[in-house]
Amino acid sequence: MVDHLSSEPVQAELYDAFNSGVRDFGFYLPLVMSARSVLDVGCGTGELLRLARESGHTGRLCGLDPSEPMLEQARRKRTDAEWVLGDMGSVDWCREFDLVVMTGHAFQVFVEDEQLRESLAAIRSALTEDGRFAFETRNPLAREWEKWIPENAVEVVHECRRVRMAHKVESPVAGDRVSFTTTFTSPGWIRPLQSHSTLRFLDADSLASFLSEANLAIEEQFGDWDRQKLTDTSPEIITVARRA
């Protein structure tokens, strides 16, 4: 679990290594392939759009991310996609995309109510009349943050060097916001790299309320990447919404 949490060039380089083997692209890629124009909000290193193009997508593919180092990685992968620096508050697309996606739990970076409302309004504006918005957020009832402890650190080999990533959550966790520090270490580095993040864990009812307020209607909702029904024990809240 890396999430979209840093603009550090080294961490951008490590992003794909720590996220290899994730299951979400199996869900999102068919949606992308069936849409003529796609906007990936918080696209990170652009891996989903790279896969789409290499799978034969011939339409418009656009990635939006606030991190220039992430976009530098994306541009190295594909030059036949649009890579835009910014967030939904800095763009003004109107009915241009058949599909908007947010992968990698990027939706959870919308911590404040007003930020979330503005972003959802901009996403709705970017959708065509029949466009869809697909995204996921972790189910707070599963309390995944309780596993984000140094003892559960993960390691990868990057450029022939072992790199370790560990999380430490700030306690106590209050409300639906979880703050934590991510630390990257490697025997070949002079010092560790750290980043501090806060993510929001909206429950299903609160999420539905924000979507309704933005005139977005839930079309489908799942609890895991194999499209299982959403339950209290589901790890994810995976949502596909349309213009209301």
Throw out a few tags for this protein.
single chain; 244 residues; alpha/beta; Rossmann fold; seven-stranded mixed sheet; 6 helices; disordered N terminus
Structural notes for this entry:
- The chain is of the alpha/beta class.
- The chain has helices spanning 9-19, 24-33, 47-54, 68-77, 113-126, 204-213; strands at 37-41, 60-65, 82-85, 97-102, 127-138, 154-158, 161-169, 177-185, 193-200, 216-222, 236-243.
- Helix 2 crosses helix 3.
Q: Rg from C-alpha positions?
A: 18 Å
Given as residue ranges, the uncertain stretches (5+ residues, pLDDT < 50) are 1-7
CATH topology of the largest domain: Rossmann fold
- Tally of domains: 2
Number of helices: 6
The residue-averaged pLDDT reads 93
What is the CATH architecture annotation of the largest domain?
Answer: 3-Layer(aba) Sandwich
Q: How much helicity do the residues have?
A: 25-40%
The counted number of beta strands is 11
Main pleated-sheet profile: 7 strands, mixed
Secondary structure category:
alpha/beta
Which term fits the overall shape? globular
CATH class of the largest domain: Alpha Beta
Strand order of the largest sheet: 3-2-1-4-5-11-10
Short summary of the structure?
The chain is α/β, with parallel strands linked by helices.
